[in-house]
Amino acid sequence: MIFNKDTAKKTAEVLLQINAIKLSPKDPFTWASGWKSPIYCDNRIILSFPPIRNYIRETMGKHIESQYGKPDVIAGVATGAIGIGMLVAEYLGLPFVYVRPEAKAHGRKNQIEGFIESGQNVVVVEDLISTGKSSLNAVRALREAKVNVKGMVAIFSYGFAIADENFKEENVTLHTLSNYENLLEQALDTKYITEDQLKTLSDWNANPSEWNAF
């Protein structure tokens, strides 16, 4: 769920401004999964724009404190959320760790990089939620380290029903700064898309795995 409507619309606006999110209903992208998609989101671009970077850092930090209180540690999900997670941790004056998709095969064989102790309260920071599988993989690694995962905060979610189911199954609370629904509202309000394009984008979101642009 989003934190609030104002944050969701403002975040959608800045992501569109810097092309962190691109909407292309007539010339769809192909995801790694093979899905055809009229949207592509790369929130790492945020790091290259200091005013937007600072907005995301401060907004996410304030919402984390308001929703969860001040945790002991911020954990970023590698690799997309390492930069943003570290900025949020710095803003809150907290330690930071990041979680790899799997443990390294060499050296100390860490999956969690950084110092963390059993029993600490952690909020996980993610850049983007699609199905939620990789994000929840990080949560499982943290729980195996016997820390208390208070919840996850992400910049943006595609709003897929499968993600809601996955987070519910793992009993993880998810809040996002913005989501697909509010992105489309903002894009239409600012004439970034037309009413016809809105229908195409909505149709894709309802059934992304089988959607065809033509």
Give a written overview of the molecule.
The protein is an alpha/beta fold. Helices cover 40% and strands 21% of the residues. It has helices at 5-17, 50-68, 82-92, 133-144, 161-169, 180-189, 195-206; strands at 21-23, 29-30, 36-37, 39-41, 73-77, 96-99, 112-113, 121-129, 148-157, 174-179. The strands form three sheets. The protein has a six-stranded mixed sheet with strand order 7-6-5-8-9-10, with helices on both faces. A two-stranded antiparallel ribbon has the order 1-4. A two-stranded antiparallel ribbon has the order 2-3. β8, α4 and β9 form a beta-alpha-beta unit. α1 packs across α6 (180-189). The protein is globular. The model has no long low-confidence stretch (mean pLDDT 94).
Strand content: 15-25%
DSSP, total strands: 10
Radius of gyration of CA atoms, rounded to a whole number: 17 Å
**Shape category:** globular
Low-confidence stretches: none
- Number of H- or I-type helical stretches: 7
Strands ordered across the widest β-sheet: 7-6-5-8-9-10
Question: What's the helical proportion of residues?
Answer: 40-55%
Mean pLDDT: 94
Outline the biggest β-sheet: 6 strands, mixed
* Distance linking N and C termini: 32 Å
